[in-house]
Structure prediction request, 1190 residues.
Amino acid sequence: MIRERIERLREKMREAGVGVYVIPSSDCHESEYVCEHYRAREYMSGFTGSAGTLVVTLEEAGLWTDGRYFLQAKKQLMGSGIVLYQMGEEGVTQIEDYVGERLAGGGKLGFDGRVMGAFGAEKFVKKAQEKNVEILETRDLVGEIWEDRPEIADAPVKVLEERYTGESVQSKMERVRQKMKEEGADVHVLASLCDIAWLLNVRGEDIPCVPVVLSFLCMNQDSCRWYVRKSVVSNEVLKHLTTCKVEIREYEKIYEDLSRILKEQSVWIDKKNVNVRLLTSLPAGVRIVDQKNPEELLKAVKNETELQNLKEAHRKEGIAFTKLMYWVKTKAKTEEITELSAAAYLDEKRREQEHERGRSFAPICAYGPHGAIVHYEATEERNVRVEPGGLFLVDAGGHYLEGTTDTTRTFVIGEVSQEQKKIYTAVLRGNLRLAYARFLQGCTGYNLDVLCREPLWQMGMDYKHGTGHGVGYYLSVHEGPNAFRWRFSEDEKAVALQAGMVTTDEPGIYIEGEYGIRLENELVCVNGEKNAYGQFLEFEILTLTPMDLDGVLPKEMTQTEREWLNRYHKRVYEEIAPYLEHEEREWLKEYTRRI
Amino acid sequence: MIRERIERLREKMREAGVGVYVIPSSDCHESEYVCEHYRAREYMSGFTGSAGTLVVTLEEAGLWTDGRYFLQAKKQLMGSGIVLYQMGEEGVTQIEDYVGERLAGGGKLGFDGRVMGAFGAEKFVKKAQEKNVEILETRDLVGEIWEDRPEIADAPVKVLEERYTGESVQSKMERVRQKMKEEGADVHVLASLCDIAWLLNVRGEDIPCVPVVLSFLCMNQDSCRWYVRKSVVSNEVLKHLTTCKVEIREYEKIYEDLSRILKEQSVWIDKKNVNVRLLTSLPAGVRIVDQKNPEELLKAVKNETELQNLKEAHRKEGIAFTKLMYWVKTKAKTEEITELSAAAYLDEKRREQEHERGRSFAPICAYGPHGAIVHYEATEERNVRVEPGGLFLVDAGGHYLEGTTDTTRTFVIGEVSQEQKKIYTAVLRGNLRLAYARFLQGCTGYNLDVLCREPLWQMGMDYKHGTGHGVGYYLSVHEGPNAFRWRFSEDEKAVALQAGMVTTDEPGIYIEGEYGIRLENELVCVNGEKNAYGQFLEFEILTLTPMDLDGVLPKEMTQTEREWLNRYHKRVYEEIAPYLEHEEREWLKEYTRRI
Prediction:
């Protein structure tokens, strides 16, 4: 079937004079999650992983993906004739070099510019220029052969009321327009869906796990146009937007409208967050202001209303998560609990909460060796029973009108080894040391990351992921610009932590083939003491679920660390206990005891 | 006298058509310490601080200096007619704006381009261009009126043998030439004196506290020219250089020679480390490679020979410092010990060590409230007695053929308060936490700084200086590129710590008008475990002098921290005790006891 699809694509390529056609994994908005309509790479290759790029020439086809997906891709590409290129492995040809070489054979370079990121396109464009080859970016050749292509969902847009957002659209626009003035930008083009949803105080259901609306936005000092499928805009939304002086235009009109911008104007367009067609639609001569979208920082700093709501969201999530913890820890011995049934139990308990709006990402419920797979997702085939004598890692989150959550706990089921407890305790110590840090204004996540890693580094261990990421407010569970990381990257500028930013704190250890331990809380940055030394900042923990004391060796902790944990557990009990059944409550008392 | 000098300068300015004349504090090499011959700013203003710039117009004169020197400058400028501009204070005119405004009055902008940094000159040049005003940079107008100008010292250059340097000049040059190839640079111009001394394995006495030779160097793949006053080059040195194929040229010839470089060539010249005349001497059209000098990183990573020698140097310094500690702590009650006599005692004990080569910087011996002045230097007027009931901060270092040292200890004299001990202990904890850190290769000082500060930040306190700086090998006590800092600076790229780098670890607390506490060790970075997680790095402490246990509250420390301190003190005793007198040894035993 895949071979047949590729042959049909090649017919289209021949007809269009294309020698090499590139199919990325993205939608038109550089989204992290992509709805089915845009899964062209999956349709053409059979590979279902979230990251990967397919390159089809008239004779060959190759798929590039990263370490997370090598095994899966190998399996799914079997029999397709597509060659797997394992990115990051030694000696593996870089995708742009492959494209460059194949272009020497003649024919244009083709891709659908709407689903190709402007930043990612640069390397291909460069190769085409080197080979003196034309680029065809205005045709979606996959779309032309795709029968039964899934439609984009038609779920209606909802207005998110000010009691949840805490700020009117007018006020947000004013702040964005102020930033535009500061950067000397006449026009601001926005394709990132979370930024648009934040700015317009709207939410949708167009993408799994992220409550956004497929749309573009273009504004200047006087007007604002929202490019969206009119079918999803109800009268209520229309009224809301009219009040905010936002004009509605058809989704696909954006490209044409951009081509009409006066070339004397300067346009703020964040190259890392737009597709290449948006960029190439601009008339030659306009000045590009290629800065991060101003919305990114504005929405990262949560306002008072959002912060109050977030506490409510985390109480709700804490109730569901604590109930899961009770259930798994007390019943795993006698009942057949599996990874999938645990995930379902958590969903069920979450749905019992008011204003619940679904999962914020596909949960990781990983027992034993599965816990060592950082991006594990249980399926019917892989699903195993959660049994005494192992560690059970659960990383999950939900959306509520009051905000988005992301929690990881690792549950000790039955008895585990002293070694496992030792590592569990080190992970916990890292988590606490970051959560209870105090620091001066100006510190970034690069400064603080080591606090979390040091207990593990002291043992000669490490986790190969960041310590934490920003979290959106009833938006994407992964949000910039705040993060905890230690490796500097050339293109990411360090951003100072500010009061109101929410970041996860999630150290872990992964022993391949054996187990994984990760403990994740969300931290909100708050102002501490201000004195002659400056403004101090600290964190408050939002997440409310016990750290499993069955994994903790109190003697491995300092007095201060034990005090921190006791303080946290006291709060968990006080906030969660009132919402539990009698048995659960008794159990919680035991599991939030002082150590 | 100052007024008279300024008037004479103005005569020269009128004669040369100069309206504004700028006098920086530097020599021709952007040196941190400057020999008397080059102290033109001091000669013209009477202000003796290490940092400051004087601007003289035909009607006015102004001096710009930073917070460290406000009081001193105010005093020293009194009666001179020179206006003090306090840099960094709100509303104070920036020096370049002042120059720009005054240039509007007509006349050229003048300065001696040989003592003006190329990087620092840019802001003045820009103003001159804006005002369409000529620049005169080839005349030293101060030199023209300076009677009895001190001569540059004529101390002979010495060759530093390979048993101290661990690497031949040929080998170093090969590595530099390799870097030149990598950067595509045909020619490499070097003005930074420590880099030259390192590269040529020579040392001199031209600058106080830094054993370097005033000189320039210019090399390509085939030849190398050293521009130096021939009077200081002995036959021994000549022979050494001939072996290394280094040609000697007169010091001032560099400018002329640079003007003859072919304009097709590319020249590696580190703008932050050359004077502006070197840059403007290059023919228009040469391609400038403006990167950090390759020698900086090469010399920062000490080789095995240097590291072995450094241990020897620190043993010697440790003996002297421990003897000082014994003397001050046991005799301050009964003998009249002062800040100056303590400094002299340390010098004396250091001079008793073999291969001693003098102070590596002016020592800070600061009792009581003086300890809170970060850059304090005792003088006859300020000198006070070291009495029981206070803290005595000593920050000092020496040169040996085996390397350069930098140590700070704060001694408890008699009884101090519980509050002081609490802060002392927090400073010590920070010092230890950094010293005993383990971390993955790739970490920079920005990642680790927080380990040192966190105990103080937890108390809502901070020190307003970096946590540590690199240290040269029998060269400057302040050396890049490695450092421990937390604030990112736009123009300083973070450099990963490498095995062989030596960095100080010196947290402190300064209570104005009361006392200062600083505890400084030098740390050498070494390879730790290498495993599946990567290459771990750690530190070894080079410095060997007890932390004063009279200031330590063991209960404020974690078990691990106490263990670290005990381990360190055990080493101090083992390495230093054999070189002490009986009484000193008994005392040391007590002061390195387990806690």
Summary: The longest strand of chain B covers residues 521-531. Chain B has a mean pLDDT of 95.
